[in-house]
User: Which sequence fits this backbone?
């Protein structure tokens, strides 16, 4: 179903050459809050690339820093956070951008979709207001913005857009509301769409519809999408490439089709073994021992060392560099023990 | 996940629940008072300032003077009607003024956070601790009698009431994800605060304002009673009670008791209304609709 694509080696996660035409280029991003001795690291050496029109998955457990990475793309750093490395969204250097540049970036170049649509729309404003507000802020005349809103609602499959714009968020179901949010996110024709677990708050059938819509809209508008999720299967189904995050670091980057057949990092394999499958023989689900770590409390060397069945003494020495293995780039010293 | 949004809660509460009888009565009384004040020149049987020593201290029920007359023979009913104007407008002024001040300060404190919040909050505490009547008396002593000075003084001393409520609700609402989502859409802090946060603070504020209105009415009546508010011969309920002091000592309490009763009923009505507005919001909050 999914064409196997070769990995672009020149944009290696070790901070290689940066393609300026990318929708999103995060390079060697490290993030910490606090200063000096009491600084708490949140992200370390994160490199993520999303090409124009490409769908890229960012997968990991809660607290692995995947949402944080997505938010950094919009310059939404936690209070008092210091970032090093570089983040570019279609040629705009986000980390050094001023307030006005950031505002323009958010209005025109990049949009974000949140987990719970009901929580991300002001409940006392009408749907029409929600959709036109962003357009009006860009200087689109009221009448044109209203027409665009109707058009967008029609595109995302809302029946009777004319009456929908006059209704309030609570009059819509979660799935319908997420469609409205998607319409709003695409209203400004962004080059980058950040989807932060956009279907987690929806039920399964609605999820499938929303994902299909999202993919379709993305193709129509040619938008690059960073899809943040903890659902590996979902990510594999819709993404071209997948980054796996653990404890604030990217541990594996892979073409999504290859991730299932040949996981290169022990953590990726453990994740796959921990998720149930309806196909094939009955296999006992293996839970990963221990609990997910934040970057600040992870052990020296490889962060996954204390939970890894393959860990040896060498894993404690230093953080493993990313190196190619199969079709993946992996931050592990023993990928051949995972996939021979 | 369930969401609890004050505005929607208030709206659905009003639709679903039948309004209790006491609230209807309170609303009816307030409307009556407001209409009476508005149409006083048409409705009042006498001029509020027309004295007639022959007709002084008539008891209520007298032909032509249904609520009796005061010690200078002025018709109590007419004076209550005319007095409604000042007695309702002045507290309204206090509520509006303190509302604007309180919203500004409260939002500023909530959105700025950090040391700005600390400074504003402690400042509000200080004003809060200062007796409002004392402040009003000081201001009147400086600027002379009349209504403007006490209105401003009371507005200042009521500002912390509003400011604190606005701040706490704004903190609570401001932490909701939708605030973030509008910021992500590229809207500035000021825009998000005024256009998206404020509407969600309003329901609580309206309930609070109704209560403040009652307090302001009593405070202004107290000032008038002390001779610091309305200047004679203008009528307002507080000064009517004040001028009836000697009559009360003479055993003719009506000209003082009746405006007092109107003050009492108005304040109770406003409080019932405020309680109802605030209550329906609180009820929905606890149900977590």
Assistant:
């Amino acid at each position: 179903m999914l064409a196997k694509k070769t990995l672009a080696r020149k944009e290696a996660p070790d901070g290689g050459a940066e393609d300026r035409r990318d929708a999103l280029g995060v390079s060697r991003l490290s993030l910490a809050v606090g200063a000096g001795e009491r600084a708490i690291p949140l992200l370390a050496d994160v490199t993520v690339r999303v090409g124009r029109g490409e769908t890229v998955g960012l997968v990991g457990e809660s607290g692995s820093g995947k949402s944080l990475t997505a938010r950094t793309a919009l310059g939404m750093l936690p209070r008092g956070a210091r970032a090093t490395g570089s983040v570019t969204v279609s040629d705009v250097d986000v980390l050094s951008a001023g307030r006005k540049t950031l505002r323009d970036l958010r209005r025109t170049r990049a949009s974000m979709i949140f987990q719970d649509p009901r929580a991300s729309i002001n409940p006392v404003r009408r749907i029409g207001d929600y959709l036109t507000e962003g357009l009006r802020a860009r200087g689109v005349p009221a009448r044109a913005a209203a027409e665009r809103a109707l058009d967008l609602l029609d595109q995302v499959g809302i029946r009777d857009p004319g009456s929908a714009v006059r209704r309030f968020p609570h009059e819509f179901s979660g799935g319908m509301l997420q469609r409205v949010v998607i319409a709003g996110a695409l209203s400004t024709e962004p080059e980058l769409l950040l989807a932060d677990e956009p279907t987690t708050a929806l039920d399964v059938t609605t999820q499938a519809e929303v994902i299909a819509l999202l993919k379709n809209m993305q193709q129509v508008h040619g938008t690059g999408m960073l899809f943040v999720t903890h659902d590996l299967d979902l990510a594999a189904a819709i993404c071209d490439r997948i980054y796996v995050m653990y404890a604030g670091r990217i541990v594996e980057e892979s073409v999504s089709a290859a991730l299932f057949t040949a996981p290169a990092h022990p953590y990726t394999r453990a994740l796959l073994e921990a998720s149930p499958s309806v196909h094939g023989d009955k296999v006992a689900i293996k839970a990963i021992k221990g609990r997910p770590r934040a970057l600040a409390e992870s052990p020296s060397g490889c962060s996954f060392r204390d939970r890894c069945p393959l860990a040896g003494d060498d894993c404690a020495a230093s953080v493993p560099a990313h190196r190619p293995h199969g079709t993946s780039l992996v931050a592990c010293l023993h990928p051949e023990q995972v996939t021979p | 996940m369930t969401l609890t949004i004050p505005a929607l809660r208030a709206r659905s509460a009003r639709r679903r629940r039948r309004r209790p009888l006491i609230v209807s009565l309170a609303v009816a009384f307030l409307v009556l008072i407001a209409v009476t004040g508005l149409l006083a020149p048409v409705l009042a049987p006498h001029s509020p300032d027309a004295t007639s020593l022959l007709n002084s201290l008539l008891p209520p029920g007298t032909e032509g003077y249904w609520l009796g007359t005061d010690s200078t023979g002025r018709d109590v009913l007419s004076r209550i009607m005319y007095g409604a104007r000042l007695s309702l407008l002045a507290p309204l002024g206090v509520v509006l003024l303190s509302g604007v001040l309180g919203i500004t300060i409260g939002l500023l404190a909530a959105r700025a956070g950090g040391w700005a919040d600390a400074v504003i909050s402690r400042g509000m505490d200080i004003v809060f601790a200062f007796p409002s009547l004392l402040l009003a008396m000081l201001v009147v002593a400086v600027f002379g009698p009349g209504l403007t000075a006490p209105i401003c003084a009371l507005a200042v001393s009521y500002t912390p009431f509003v400011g604190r409520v606005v701040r706490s609700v704004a903190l609570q609402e401001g932490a909701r994800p939708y605030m973030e989502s509008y910021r992500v859409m590229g809207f500035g802090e000021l825009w998000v605060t005024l256009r998206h946060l404020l509407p969600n603070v309003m329901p609580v504020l309206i309930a609070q304002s109704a209560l403040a209105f009652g307090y302001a009415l009593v405070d202004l009546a107290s000032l008038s009673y002390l001779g610091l508010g309305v200047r004679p011969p203008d009528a307002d309920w507080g000064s009517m009670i004040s001028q009836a002091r000697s009559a009360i000592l003479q055993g003719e309490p009506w000209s003082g008791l009746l405006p007092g009763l109107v003050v009492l009923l108005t304040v109770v009505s406003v409080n019932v209304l405020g309680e109802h507005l605030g209550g329906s919001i609180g009820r929905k909050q606890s149900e977590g609709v």
Summary: Chain A has one domain: 4-8+21-122+190-337.
